[in-house]
Amino acid sequence: MSKTILHIDASARRVGSATRELSEKIVQHLDAQRIIRRDLATPLPLLTEDWINANFTPADQRDSAQLDLLALSDELVAELQDADTIVIGLPIYNFSVPAAFKAWIDLVARAGVTFAYTENGPKGLLEGKRAILAIASGGTAVDSEIDFATGYARHVLGFIGIHDVEVIAADRMALDPEATLQKARDAVAQLAA
Fold first, then answer.
1. Residues 6+ apart with CB under 8 A from 34
2. Taking a C-beta distance cutoff of 8 angstroms, is the pair 70, 112 a contact?
3. CB–CB of 30/2 below 8 Å?
4. Hey, what domains does the chain have and what are their CATH numbers?
5. Runs of H (alpha helix) within 63-133
C-alpha cells in the first residue's frame, strides 16, 4: 500500500476521458492512506521572465513579489516531495503531451530543488518514488516512433529522480475503443500494490 499518492490528471476532458478513468482506477487499486489530487484541466500559468528571474534569485534574496511568483511552484514541488507514488493520467495530444502537463513540468523541474547539476551531469532529487502513467491515444501507438509523449514523460520524471515508471496503455483507441480500454483496465488490476 502506498502511503501517499499524488494523482495528476492532464486531460482537458473532465467527462469521458479514458486517462481519467484509468488513473482513478489505479489510485483505487493502490489503496493509499492519503491522496493528493492535481487536476491540470484547471490551467497552470506558463513561465514568464519574472518567474524565471525569481527562480534563479538565491532563496534568501527573494523579495515578496518573487516569493509570490514561486508560491504555486513550491506547492506543486511539495506535492511531489510528499508522495510515495505519482499516478498520472496522460493523454497523447498531437503525438505529444498536453500543454497543461508541460506547464506542470516547467513548474516542478527546478535546479537545486528537484534536480541538481553535478560534475557527472544532472541528478534528480526525488529518488525512491514510483510513477504510474495511464496513457491513452486515438491513433498513436505507445512507444512507437510517433509517440513523443511517453518517452518524454519517462525522461523528465527520471530527470527529477523518479526512475520507477510503469505505463498502462490504452493506445490507438480509435480502432477498438472498448477492447483497448478493457485491456488497460485488466492491466490496472494486475498492478502490484
1. 3, 4, 5
2. no
3. yes
4. 4-189 (3.40.50.360)
5. 64-82, 99-108
Tens-digit pLDDT profile for residues 117-166: 999 999 999 999 999 999 999 999 999 999 999 999 999 999 999 999 99
Please state, in angstroms and as integers, the Cα–Cα distance from residue 74 to each residue in 56, 62, 83, following that order: 14, 14, 14
How much is the pLDDT for 1?
57
Place of cell 506535492: 79
Dist CA 19 CA 1 (whole Å): 22
Residue 2 above 80 pLDDT? no
Report whether 27 contacts 88 (CB < 8 A): no
Please say whether the beta carbons of 7 and 32 come within 8 A: no
Query: Is 11 annotated as belonging to a binding site?
Result: yes
Matching residue, cell 493528493: 36
